[in-house]
C-alpha cells in the first residue's frame, strides 16, 4: 500500500476556501487605440459586428485530495503501517497542536491544468515541528525520508481552462483580501492507497491525536 501522512483541514475550512476560489475571472483584453478617421471608424464598425461572444470563465473543480501533505512513505506493508502508527501515537502525546488559517489563495497557470492552492498562515512553525517529529519517528522505524520537503498548503481546486495560452495567461483570482477562519490542528492522518486502485484517491486508515491540543 502507498502511504503518506497529512493534516486534513476541517470541512468548513475547505468549503470556505473553495467558495473563495469561485472568484476566478479573466483579466480584460488589451484594446488597441480607437481610430479617428472616417475610414477607420467605418472599419471599426465592421469589426464590432464581427465581435466574438463574451468569454465564459472556466469552471472551478474541487480538489480530490484537499490535505496538507507531511510525508510520503512510499510502498509499505500492512504490518509496517500498524507498527508505524503505534509508534507515532506513543510519541505524539506532547507534540504541538498549532492554530492555523488560510492566509491566501494562489493561482498557478503554468501547470498542465491551472490549480488553486491554499497557503497557510498562523503557527506554521508548529506544523513544521510536527513534520520534523514525524520524520524522526519514521527514521526510528527505518523509514528514511526527505527532510527538506514540506509546504504548508493544500490544493483547493483545478480549473477547466481552455488550452489557448492567451486565455490561461489572463486568468486572475480575485481574492486579494481573503483570510480564512482559524482552526487548531489536533490530529494528523495516515492515508493509504491500495495497489491497483485506479481512483488515485487516498483513504484515511489511521488517525494520530496531538497531545498538545487543548
**What ranges have pLDDT less than 50 throughout 5 or more consecutive residues?**
46-51
Shape: elongated
**Name of the level-1 CATH class:** Alpha Beta
N-to-C series of helices and strands = EHEHEEHEEHEHEEEE
What integer is the average pLDDT?
Answer: 85
CATH superfamily: Cyclic phosphodiesterase
Count of alpha/pi helices? 5
Alpha-beta content class? alpha+beta
Whole-number tally of structural domains: 1
Helicity level: 25-40%
Question: What is the CATH T-level topology?
Answer: Cyclic Phosphodiesterase, Chain: A
- Which value, in Å, is the CA radius of gyration? 23 Å
- Named at the architecture level, the CATH assignment is Alpha-Beta Complex
Number of strands: 11
Compute the separation of the termini in Å: 33 Å
Strand order of the largest sheet: 3-7-6-5-9
Q: What summary fits the major beta sheet? A: 5 strands, antiparallel
How would you describe what is shown here?
This protein has a five-stranded antiparallel β-sheet, with helices on both faces. The protein has one domain (2-26, 55-209): Cyclic Phosphodiesterase, Chain: A (Alpha-Beta Complex), CATH 3.90.1140.10. The protein is built from five helices and eleven strands. The longest helix has 17 residues, at 124-140. Mean pLDDT is 85; it is low at 46-51. Helices cover 28% and strands 31% of the residues. The chain starts with a strand and ends in a 5-residue tail after the last strand. By secondary structure, the protein is an alpha+beta fold. The radius of gyration is 23 Å and the shape is elongated.
